[in-house]
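Predict both folds.
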Amino acid sequence: MQTNATNTMFETATRVKIRFTSVRGELSVEQLWDVPLRSRDGFNLDAVAKAANAAKLAITEESFVSTERTPAHDKAELTLELVKYVIQVKLSEEATAKKRAENKVEREKLLAILAEKQAGKLSELSEKEIQRRINALDA
């Protein structure tokens, strides 16, 4: 669930039309969600975050005389925070999907073991008991 601060961050981003630099050109906030966490071709969220961080560092270069913040400072910080937020969400979703897959594999193993145990119990029944159960199923 998004917090009020997160909602404000995304509202501001859409109002000021924040764009993110990537190897495939400028990306909107909506397009950021479609960028993979990792890739071999350089089109990934890590590269977008590095570009946003470099832009922020370029704007906030240390000055011993001028300490004023400009709208460009705020925009650069917001750009980086948005990318970091999307990365955090995607990493969380990735971890959840991995856990779900692990649980599915374990469940399948447990079901196979249970089926083996149940088959073992059935094979221990006497002929009369087996016939009685078959007749009960046919009825």
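Second protein follows, with its predicted structure tokens after the sequence.
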Amino acid sequence: MSPADLDRLRTAVRDVPDFPKPGILFKDITPILGDGELFRLAVAGLTEAAAIHRPHRIAGIDARGFILGGAVANLLGVGFVPIRKKGKLPWRCESVAYALEYGESVVEVHVDAVQPGERVVIVDDLLATGGTAAAASQLIRQLGGELCDLLFLIELGFLGGRAKLTGAPVTALLTF
């Protein structure tokens, strides 16, 4: 991906102050999703980064990771694995709880979503504090998958989330 393309994507990210609560500066990717050319650029960059691992599956984290990860899986011709919030998947699941700033959350995946030894790349829109991505990584490993990369459109580097993600590379197209 060219520096000019990365600049176009970076410029399109909208800052939304005080969302979802006061003091948070939310990085909104909907301007990228809503522009066909920018969406294509973002998906192409993520697909290029994922392809080097020759994954069997792309796992996307609820919910924007579904949009980006589904597109990447489609272009690579591999299966897509949804990692969802607790209670949203209709069959038997593996679950992992993780800490939030004020409490706890749980993510789940179907028990047969990844077979032992399959190479998996996790895709999401944003890496912040790393809790959700770390839990998603744990789920893939619990199923016996080989986690090849954690791939993000955006990383908020100042929050240090990368430090929570061990045992696989972490790749972000844009860093703020």
